[in-house]
């Protein structure tokens, strides 16, 4: 059946993606646990719904209905990805998610051979973080390779401008934040990571702080954070040394002192689960987007000692995520994918970002 299922259809991203798909003439199916919330989310646009009270029920529905594309917004992806991908490959469905944690993104990419055998496309990291930073790295590296240069070092910085809706953080996001890096090589579960000589090695959480000035003239700072975009940047560039940073990570001197102690406490299972429950219940007030643009930033150092710096300007981070996920899903629905497992720009190139309104800016010339 030619249709797109949206798992987590009552959430902010799920609703936003479904509405954008409908605006383009597609007919998404909202999938969620609560029938009442699904009816409410679907009512305004007349979306179809599928009630799945458990993840097992959702995967059983995928195997039976065999949708063309499944979009998963349900985290933590370290827990939900494998059963949903298994169902998609069995059903002949393509798969898209918006994971951005260092455990989940490589786990999806490791399913490439499975996807090739099934003739299906799997895409991870279709949200703002991975797609924005990976795209600017891919853009810079395409120019460098055309000039015969090889990337040896890359630093990416994610600078989202996010408008917050009032409400609790929620179980899925809290779980992702509290789980650390289960199964990730190169350091402890609650340590940061960087690539050094092509291997994952420890890095200080919130360390490596760089001050930045965006093309709009905004002054921000970004500290190291072990996100899925680290893997995406390394794959896009082939550089042996790669760091990823975010303006959202606490990187004050106090935070750098507190984070190691907090990480030690989170290694204790009962404390981690208690912290996750408390964090999930924290209610945040509404907040407008702090800046006009969200940004992906990268600096690439080449084998001849020169550097290239670029920015990718996009809109508000949540709306950009909705637009990116929708664009990827639509392309897969049209048959524009290819068998295997990919991050967004690895599959569709740096032009994917411009298709959703992104603009690249080069800072200076290679030097």
Automatic annotation (TrEMBL):
<dbReference type="InterPro" id="IPR036291">
    <property type="entry name" value="NAD(P)-bd_dom_sf"/>
</dbReference>
<dbReference type="InterPro" id="IPR005097">
    <property type="entry name" value="Sacchrp_dh_NADP-bd"/>
</dbReference>
<feature type="domain" description="Saccharopine dehydrogenase NADP binding">
    <location>
        <begin position="4"/>
        <end position="123"/>
    </location>
</feature>
<dbReference type="Pfam" id="PF03435">
    <property type="entry name" value="Sacchrp_dh_NADP"/>
</dbReference>
<protein>
    <submittedName>
        <fullName>Short subunit dehydrogenase-like uncharacterized protein</fullName>
    </submittedName>
</protein>
């Amino acid at each position: 059946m030619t249709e797109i299922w949206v798992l987590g259809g009552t959430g902010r991203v799920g609703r936003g993606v479904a509405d954008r798909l409908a605006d383009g003439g597609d007919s998404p199916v909202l999938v969620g646990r609560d029938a009442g919330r699904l009816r409410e989310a679907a009512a305004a646009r007349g979306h179809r719904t599928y009630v799945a009270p458990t993840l097992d029920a959702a995967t059983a529905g995928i195997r039976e209905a065999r949708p063309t594309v499944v979009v998963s917004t349900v985290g933590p992806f370290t827990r939900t990805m494998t059963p949903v991908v298994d169902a998609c490959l069995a059903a002949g469905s393509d798969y898209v998610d918006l994971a951005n944690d260092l455990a989940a993104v490589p786990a999806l990419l490791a399913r490439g051979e499975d996807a090739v055998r099934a003739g299906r496309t799997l895409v991870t990291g279709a949200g703002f973080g991975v797609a924005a930073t990976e795209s600017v790295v891919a853009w810079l590296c395409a120019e460098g390779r055309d000039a015969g240069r090889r990337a040896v070092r890359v630093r990416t910085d994610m600078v989202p401008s996010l408008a917050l809706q009032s409400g609790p953080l929620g179980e899925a996001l809290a779980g992702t934040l509290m789980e650390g890096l289960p199964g990730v090589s190169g350091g402890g579960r609650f340590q940061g990571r960087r690539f050094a000589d092509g291997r994952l090695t420890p890095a200080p959480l919130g360390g490596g702080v760089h001050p930045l000035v965006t093309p709009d003239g905004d002054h921000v700072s970004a500290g190291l954070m072990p996100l899925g975009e680290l893997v995406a940047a390394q794959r896009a560039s082939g550089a042996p040394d790669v760091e990823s940073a975010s303006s959202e990570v606490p990187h004050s001197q106090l935070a750098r002192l507190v984070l190691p102690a907090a990480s030690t406490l989170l290694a204790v299972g009962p404390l981690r689960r208690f912290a996750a429950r408390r964090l999930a219940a924290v209610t945040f007030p509404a907040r407008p987007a702090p800046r006009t643009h969200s940004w992906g930033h990268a600096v690439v150092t080449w084998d001849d000692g020169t550097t290239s710096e670029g920015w990718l300007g996009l809109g508000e981070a949540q709306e950009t995520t909705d637009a990116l996920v929708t664009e990827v899903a639509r392309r897969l629905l049209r048959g524009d994918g290819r068998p295997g497992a990919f991050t967004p720009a690895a599959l569709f190139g740096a032009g994917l970002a411009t298709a959703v309104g992104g603009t690249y800016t080069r800072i200076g010339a290679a030097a």
